[in-house]
Write a structure and sequence with these properties.
Blueprint: H1 3-12, H2 14-30, E1 39-47, H3 61-72, H4 75-85, H5 91-97, E2 98-102, E3 108-115, H6 118-174, H7 190-193, H8 195-225, E4 228-232, H9 244-270, H10 277-284, E5 288-291, H11 296-300, H12 304-307, H13 311-326, E6 334-340, H14 347-360, E7 365-369, H15 376-381, E8 394-395, E9 401-402, E10 408-410, E11 419-424, H16 438-446, E12 451-458, H17 463-471, E13 474-480, H18 485-494, E14 501-505
Parallel strand pairs: 5-14, 6-12, 6-13, 7-11, 7-12, 13-14
Antiparallel strand pairs: 1-3, 1-4, 2-3, 8-9, 10-11
Helix pairs in contact: 1-2, 1-9, 2-9, 4-5, 4-6, 6-8, 13-14
Length: about 525
Amino acid sequence: MELAFITSAVRRYFWVVLLFMALGAVPAVLLKSDDAAMYQSRAVLLVTPPSDGSASYASEPDRYVVNQLSVLRSDELAVSVAAAVGGGASAQVVQSAVSFDHRPKTDVVEVVVETTDPAFSQAIGNAYIDRYLDLLETQTSEVVGPLDTELEGINAELATNAAAQAALLTPYLQAEPAAAGEAYPPIPVIEQLSPDLAAQYEVLVARYNVLLEQRGRVDMTARLNASGKIVQRATMPAAPETSSDKLLLAMGVVGGGFVGFLAAVVMARLSPRVLDNTQAEEILGVQVFGSLPSERMLANHHRAALEEPPPSVITFIESLCVQIESGAQRADTLTVAVVGTQRSSGVTTLASAVASQFAANGSSVLLVDADQRHPELTSLFGNPRPDAPENRPRRSPTGKFVAAPKRLHRFNTTIVPNLNVVSFSGGPSNSTMRRQHVDEAVSEAMAQADVVVFDGGPLMAASSTVQLSRLCDAVILTIPGRQNVRPLAAAAAALRNRSFLAVSTPSGHTSLRLPAP
């Protein structure tokens, strides 16, 4: 499906799109609530995954953050936050007010709190990030605490061992020389005095060093696993957020517009009418020359197109006449057949305007009413003149007077110089022009003027009109704004073997109105 067709479909059936947009807004209007305005506070946390190689988070950083999100959403943290906020807030109230937004492929987590009180929203947001960091610190303490307790116990045992060693060594340290000038007595090592006490000391020191190294590793790992940083504390909301009612309304309008768009395209596809000139050109196989300007004057004044065409119409018809003359084959008389795709397609209006323009250019013009079923020109310009030479009876070879066998019946002349209007019929004995009489009538018309313009009416209304379109130098096919596809395709088939000009006419004033009786 081409974009041009879709655009034309939406333009033609825009009211369908508007209707569905209105229908989409109805649920939002019916479900409109009277809830108080909601204030939204935001805090930002940076949750960094471990970097000591103890866990494989390097290739999947989101996995660690997702794990921490489960901690943030836990009931334990909600209870702690509710206690910190106070004011009778329960854990359920806190959990219903808060949400966590993780930005993919980052360590950033947004804490979003929405309540009816801006200060309460900010308090909950700050409490969440503070209690979360406190929880991480608590987890670290729980891991390191037992090691610290054991180290303190070993320290106490070492102190006891050292006191025992000091008690054994004190007598030797306080001993004096036996006589003046003699050396101090030797001091034995603790291993000589108490091998068990010395061995116990060595074991305690070794155990202490092992535990101290283990505590260092555990402390580092725990702190890496529990790393968190406040990027932004909870903000104080200055204005309420957009209510859910407005969001629902917007969603309804957008959804209804989309459904209306699809409905417009489907209606255009199933419609029996042509959407625009682009689709008409596809059916006809030729480009549309242009659109006849819409003028109210043409509908209000029956003879305006012939005797006083509006300036905008004159400008368009001038270009059309140039195009007609440029494609003419004969150098003596130019014949133009104006036909339509269906009734009320502006044939009489366009034929009258073309004839008037050729007359204004100085040509002798004959405007022929060749519409067999609805001869509008005949109704506009009155009955044929009975005293016209071509309408007078003549004597037959047997001596009797018979009606003139002419195919053209002249009317009263118009106020336009060089322009006459005549009817097109099969003669007195045959009021309808037959197909076999068209050649004779065209030849007769060509002998009376420089330019002959035929108002043929609908192309497929009579076989004589089809024959007329084949004999004339130029054919103009009028297409109304509300054109049906089937008659347009039939006209295209009838004109397939010859060139013609297609002109779009407005939907409103497509033909001259007949005068009131």
